[in-house]
Amino acid sequence: xxxxxxxxxxxxxxxxxxxxxxxxxxxxxxxxxxxxxxxxxxxxxxxxxxxxxxxxxxxxxxxxxxxxxxxxxxxxxxxxxxxxxxxxxxxxxxxxxxxxxxxxxxxxxxxxxxxxxxxxxxxxxxxxxxxxxxxxxxxxxxxxxxxxxxxxxxxxxxxxxxxxxxxxxxxxxxxxxxxxxxxxxxxxxxxxxxxxxxxxxxxxxxxxxxxxxxxxxxxxxxxxxxxxxxxxxxxxxxxxxxxxxxxxxxxxxxxxxxxxxxxxxxxxxxxxxxxxxxxxxxxxxxxxxxxxxxxxxxxxxxxxxxxxxxxxxxxxxxxxxxxxxxxxxxxxxxxxxxxxxxxxxxxxxxxxxxxxxxxxxxxxxxxxxxxxxxxxxxxxxxxxxxxxxxxxxxxxxxxxxxxxxxxxxxxxxxxxxxxxxxxxxxxxxxxxxxxxxxxxxxxxxxxxxxxxxxxxxxxxxxxxxxxxxxxxxxxxxxxxxxxxxxxxxxxxxxxxxxxxxxxxxxxxxxxxxxxxxxxxxxxxxxxxxxxxxxxxxxxxxxxxxxxxxxxxxxxxxxxxxxxxxxxxxxxxxxxxxxxxxxxxxxxxxxxxxxxxxxxxxxxxxxxxxxxxxxxxxxxxxxxxxxxxxxxxxxxxx
Amino acid sequence: xxxxxxxxxxxxxxxxxxxxxxxxxxxxxxxxxxxxxxxxxxxxxxxxxxxxxxxxxxxxxxxxxxxxxxxxxxxxxxxxxxxxxxxxxxxxxxxxxxxxxxxxxxxxxxxxxxxxxxxxxxxxxxxxxxxxxxxxxxxxxxxxxxxxxxxxxxxxxxxxxxxxxxxxxxxxxxxxxxxxxxxxxxxxxxxxxxxxxxxxxxxxxxxxxxxxxxxxxxxxxxxxxxxxxxxxxxxxxxxxxxxxxxxxxxxxxxxxxxxxxxxxxxxxxxxxxxxxxxxxxxxxxxxxxxxxxxxxxxxxxxxxxxxxxxxxxxxxxxxxxxxxxxxxxxxxxxxxxxxxxxxxxxxxxxxxxxxxxxxxxxxxxxxxxxxxxxxxxxxxxxxxxxxxxxxxxxxxxxxxxxxxxxxxxxxxxxxxxxxxxxxxxxxxxxxxxxxxxxxxxxxxxxxxxxxxxxxxxxxxxxxxxxxxxxxxxxxxxxxxxxxxxxxxxxxxxxxxxxxxxxxxxxxxxxxxxxxxxxxxxxxxxxxxxxxxxxxxxxxxxxxxxxxxxxxxxxxxxxxxxxxxxxxxxxxxxxxxxxxxxxxxxxxxxxxxxxxxxxxxxxxxxxxxxxxxxxxxxxxxxxxxxxxxxxxxxxxxx
Lengths: 637, 637
Description:
2 copies of one chain form a homodimer. By secondary structure, chain A is mainly alpha-helical.
């Protein structure tokens, strides 16, 4: 060894202080469910103060409301008006994705944002119906009831599902199981969202081309068959003209907005409303609806009616609603969480994920009682909200008030709005969900992840949203399971002139110590991989012995396992280590353990594995293990 | 720093050589499916040699058969006779657990062991029907058909299920997915086996007490209600006398065998057969069957009839069989794999798990065509086989031949065998499955694991085997998922007089460096935990800043993440790191990365994270990172 200054003082491996069962258990539970210790601010406070803190915790508006001022209000009003102009046409279109009448989209942009404004803690999220959840909800609901012939039942199930979506969301947050949504991997989400965007865009061909008979399936094959099958008689040129002209306008506005994001963010934000006004006006004066251009016809006037009597809380109807609600609620949560985290990181404020879920859940529960269907944070509108300079959730209140005014006064004006313009708006909105850049990054970084991404994408595009979602979740889980089954191991060598040992593949300059095999296990040793770890280590040893025979090298007398990356071990893992030790004894190879962590060393001690191999075979570092195990060998180096 | 000898030469972090997509992919596949590289011996061999090697691979008997000799044969004959004497009474009893006629148990100990002897590679396993699989198969089958009134359909389904159990086993081995059985954790298996043993023992109260009307449920509540409900008229004192006398005899034999394992292992092995002979003889001369002692009555004479025409390969009947077969086949595999591994480790020979599965699968497929139901390795008989000095699978052949002779000649002798003695034999056999010691070790080592163990145990005892199995699998999977969701992190400090940094909780003597926060992440950073890792690190930082304000310590200027245990990172993880970097920038804290592994550093480079933080912020060790990040700070220490 070059650097012997350390070798004289061989350090002891630390044993953590013994903890009682209760402490151990509480710690485990706390780390799992209360990683952020929500009760910390309540400690050592008088009762009244605790109540005030509790209320402020539940209603963050009370917190920031105290130092709200005029300049903030100005920012919120500008942002609120901007997202209102964007959300009104989107709401009408998204309601159609969920097979609901257009006013339900507007209803859903009135009540939920108000509730979120009081309870939510993200400052940038814009609440309302979103494309993917609307499509998913519509797809799930229409497997139960036909939205045209069984309109009443369909709507009742929609509100029941929305109620249970809210219950699911609030419950997950309340019992602090919010981390469950993390089981949908980023790659799977990118694929799923992209696939859903394509599916939604394809669905819009109906309105865009003015086709009357259209398939109910959402897969690309059925849709394209529907489109080409109606090419002779079904397409309406006036509709296509309106649709494509305004789509070009919207895309141009988007392009401008992207070019000068700082100053012109409002151009793509108000372009949809301008399109709607222009298109409606031109249809009205040309009476194009007489020439086959389909129009919205009627939007119910007035604000949200109560829908409490529509919801079923028990029975088989409720069971259906529950099933659909859980799925739609989880997907909605995933979207809201992604938005919340992104903007929290950009403005560097903290977001309690579980609390957010309670806010979103309450919002959907109350929403379901006021004729709203599942709402969540919208990617596109939240980005606009942020760009427009929103300061607090007041921008959602402003948006909500504008929607209320629209419902009370302006709905008759939408009578002549052509469906084609709504389709154009939806197409231009969902194109943003196709995240080429993320897909490209995934491709560069991890090919297996990319396959997961494509699996979810093609699952949605070629079968249905539900299947695509199932594929996405399955692939995500399979990835975790594969990861813990096949751990990586590495042979270590000495970096010349140091006591440091590193993977010889990563550091080609690292030199293997003759007669000593240093193996690093790169994973917790659990039941799922314990046997594999044992076999893999023995294989390294056999390979080494073969080479050694072929090249007449010194015999391997010592096997050192670097346990630095081994974060945990369970009884199966200890069992495998004991079997390994037995095999090594049969071959007269000595086993040394370097740098076991606190949890591992404690468990090895409890299972009497340390007694078995001998306390002196535990080392603080690989370098010391090499010296300690094989002083003669290390002198030769 | 005390030891500055290293600090002058700051080492570079190694980047692994770039690999092409194909190489990357092949490596990944190979590590997952061909961890042991089965094709290695075939390399550079002529065609004829490859064929011979292939045959020897498929039939290991050809391999060891060449140096088989008389002394080995002697060992195998002794072992074979011993396990035959143990298996005959067990077979008859286990067949009843599966609701089959007694001869089917004997059939199942004739054909399958012969096939395994040619194809299997474990030298110590004893093949035949086993208690848990018999119980599970019986429980699953009787949900479909009643074993008494629909005897014919029941038997047909049994053979169909056995066939598909074999197909499942062989297929898993063939496509090298054998690692799937590792997803049942050791703790869950201990609990499941213990629960099944209790359930089986409780079931034996029927025969043991001579009760005629007995519940079909297997949970402890139903069984005890059945037992106490029949206390007035249902119990037969002659039966109880026989049962308890011989149970005492069997337990005594077991105790003796355990005391002097080396010399007297054969005592408990032949005790069951002796009991059967004595009990049968005493019933025959006293004609106790006239006084309500239930007897076996009739065992069909002759060897296995063909049952090919009983198996359905398609249709809904086959679907039922497939479902049952998959479950029974997987449980059987788990048991065989555990036995195989245990004895392979004890005698230090290698076992190819996937090849074993192909052998077991073929054995069950052929077995299903010759009136055998699902067989696997038996814990108790394999242990006896090992103790009796078996050398190869020839001991299974010897056992099989003895069973054949029994079927051809001796079955009429079992006519007067009382059911009570079979119950006693089963009770004494399954008690060995209750592994107190393993449960105690699990309790000591890991409380969460112990809960899993108890969950499976009570699931089996209080509901049913299927539910218990489901609980066991769910808990195992939940453990993996929890493990990857809540990673451990640790604060590191400097061990005085070294460049080594260790967890300050494990090593109380480690000293934190003022102004520098060193955090170690103890897990791969994946989508399932990336957000959590980020939040946790920021929380360490906030805690530190609070303390620092309170105690007037120097400001934290540097955050160093020790990535030694981080075995992998995915796009979500990189995304979280980028968000972390942004948050740190807002707080004017610099980020350093110490010792990233080959895979991690490669992915960070591809995702341009290294460009983002700067190449100079990557360090080989934490020690160098502290010096490199904060030369001023480290000088002060």
